[in-house]
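Quick one, tokens below:
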């Protein structure tokens, strides 16, 4: 068994610049550590990632091992499936070539690539750290129910990966407890909030817009219920205006609503920094989520809402991690996922000032990219040069 050639490999398929927040954070992690250690990034990109880094003056001393992407969101299932297999093979080849002593792997794509990392570390006696921004296959099974044998096999594979990691990282206590229950792992599990771009906050009186939703408009965000409540609220003479940023399954329905009501604007997909600037112009932000999902994931838009200074109107059950988060940090109010309750919630925030309900305390510090990078360095066992 030959010696290790690399101190750390970061495995993240949708790396910078495609993943504009987490990818940026992981690039900063790589850059900081590469000043005194050997670091490689294993990723996939639709352009030459090394050239992109050089053009932006980024990634100095970071070894880039990125394969080219040949599929996108419009590609068929078979083509995307082959790309997942291609990235799995690329990950194993890149790990063997770079021979890292430690591997950090995020869940993109979930289950299978982390298992590849487990196999490499088992064979070459390396350490790995498994970061679960969401828990699969459960999160995927809510959207598209899987064959029960495939579902069980994927869970079994992921349990093996969880049990043999040096440590696990996830987002909230509910996710941590589910990981423990499902995998029976004995390794340490650390909680770390996803970071957000810094946004220059506006004073309450300077916020010219009322309510914003930013993120994926998909099956898990209660969009049909939200649209029905907005229709009823506006038909009853409600005075709030609503802005939607993001794409997804219900994008056409959002555009349809915007075409009917002057008080609704649909902007579609925007780059992360532009979206954050739009969010910062609003007093309140919508955080709808299916209750079951909160065991396996935590809405990523929550970080950008808090950093932007919006009050959060969480639409979920009171016993969920999202509702507890809102109450713990006093960042807004919660609303039952019911038609009449949501209309009443809109009427409540018509009169409420964000400052009346929101005191963010040290939460803002925990959402900084710098804090995220420092925490990962600590968990990986590296000291940053100051």
């Amino acid at each position: 068994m030959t010696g290790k050639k690399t101190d750390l490999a970061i495995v993240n398929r949708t790396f910078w610049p495609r993943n504009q927040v987490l990818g940026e954070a992981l690039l900063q992690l790589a850059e900081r550590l590469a000043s005194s250690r050997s670091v490689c990034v294993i990723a996939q990109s639709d352009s030459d990632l090394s050239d992109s880094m050089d053009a932006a003056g980024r990634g100095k001393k970071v070894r880039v091992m990125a394969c080219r992407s040949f599929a996108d969101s419009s590609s068929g299932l078979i083509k995307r499936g082959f790309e997942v297999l291609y990235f799995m093979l690329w990950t194993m080849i890149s790990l063997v070539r770079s021979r890292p002593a430690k591997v950090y792997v995020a869940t993109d794509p979930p289950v299978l690539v982390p298992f590849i990392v487990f196999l490499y570390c088992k064979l070459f006696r390396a350490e790995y750290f498994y970061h679960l921004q969401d828990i699969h296959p459960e999160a995927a099974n809510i959207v598209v129910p899987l064959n029960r044998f495939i579902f069980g096999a994927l869970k079994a594979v992921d349990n093996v990966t969880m049990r043999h990691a040096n440590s696990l990282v996830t987002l909230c206590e509910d996710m941590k407890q589910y990981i423990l229950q499902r995998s029976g792992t004995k390794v340490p599990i650390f909680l770390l909030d996803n970071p957000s771009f810094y946004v220059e906050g506006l004073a309450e009186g300077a916020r010219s817009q009322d309510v914003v939703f930013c993120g994926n408009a998909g099956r898990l965000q209660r969009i049909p219920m939200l649209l029905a409540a907005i229709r009823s609220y506006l038909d009853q003479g409600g005075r709030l205006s609503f802005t939607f940023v993001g794409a997804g399954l219900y994008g056409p329905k959002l555009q349809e609503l915007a075409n009917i009501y002057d008080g609704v604007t649909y902007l579609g997909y925007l780059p992360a920094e532009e979206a954050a600037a739009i969010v910062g112009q609003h007093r309140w932000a919508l955080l709808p989520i299916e209750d079951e999902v909160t065991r396996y994931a935590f809405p990523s838009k929550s970080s950008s809402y808090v950093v932007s200074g919006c009050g959060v109107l969480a639409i979920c059950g009171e016993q969920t991690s999202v509702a507890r988060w809102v109450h713990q940090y006093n960042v807004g109010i919660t609303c039952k996922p019911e038609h009449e309750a949501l209309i009443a919630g809109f009427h409540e925030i018509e009169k409420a000032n964000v400052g009346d309900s929101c005191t963010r305390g040290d939460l803002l510090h925990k959402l900084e990219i710098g804090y995220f990078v420092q925490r990962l360095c600590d968990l990986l066992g590296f000291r940053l040069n100051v």
